[in-house]
Design a protein that fits this description.
With 224 residues, the protein is mostly helical. It is 58% helix and 0% strand.
């Protein structure tokens, strides 16, 4: 039996993206697993650049899990108020710190099952920490990965968890972290939600998203 067509397609995709995006790692500034966890909570529906503007002061004010656990929410909010949904995020950060301190002896857990018991932590955030902080094979599915994976017909799901499970068997475990992150960066910079840059895309001939490609070609012909 030959290799699954989607597996073959994804191998070609990742080979090209490795050349187009040599460096595949988070842009979120952090010095340890807990700082990465906090930064990832802050990054939901917010740019990494914006998060990186607030975390230096945040991590200078609260240096340990214990510091975050006993933080005054109003004070923490004042530091991160330029970030979207800062009140909810401040509550989640303090709640997460308290639970890590009480349940995990102040150490960020290293399993998806334990990480997702923390307040406001879903599989996406957990997978960022597992992959970036601990090097544990994991597939991060955010809005960009969701869009790219669907346009490339690697999945037909709109559910991030299901997309993660659909991608798992399509690439070697050794490529999960870097592969998913390259899909994310490709979606962020090339395969945009509106006006995808199809004509400069390194995956143009591999991509089955004919509607998006036709729109891009027509826009080019009109000089838009």
């Amino acid at each position: 039996m030959g290799q699954h067509p989607k597996k073959t397609l994804l191998a070609k995709i990742l080979s090209r993206l490795e050349k187009a995006i040599p460096k595949a790692q988070t842009a979120l500034l952090h010095r340890n697993p807990f700082e990465l966890l906090v930064a990832t909570i802050l990054s939901a529906q917010c740019t990494d650049a914006r998060v990186n503007k607030v975390t230096p002061a945040l991590f200078n004010t609260y240096k340990t899990v214990a510091d975050f656990a006993k933080a005054d929410q109003t004070q923490l909010e004042s530091i991160i108020q330029s970030v979207n949904f800062y009140r909810n995020k401040a509550k989640a950060i303090i709640g997460t710190a308290k639970q890590i301190k009480e349940t995990f002896s102040g150490i960020v857990p290293k399993t998806i099952e334990e990480l997702t018991t923390l307040p406001g932590i879903g599989r996406k955030t957990a997978n960022v920490v597992l992959g970036e902080a601990f090097g544990i094979p994991s597939i991060v599915v955010d809005t960009h990965v969701k869009r790219v994976a669907n346009r490339l017909q690697l999945t037909q799901s709109s559910n991030p968890d299901q997309i993660e499970f659909d991608l798992m068997p399509l690439m070697p475990k050794s490529k999960w972290i870097s592969g998913a992150f390259r899909l994310l960066l490709h979606g962020r910079h090339v395969c945009l939600a509106r006006g995808p840059r199809c004509l400069t895309c390194p995956l143009f001939d591999l991509c089955p998203a004919e509607q998006e490609k036709t729109i891009a070609e027509n826009r080019f012909k009109k000089g838009l």
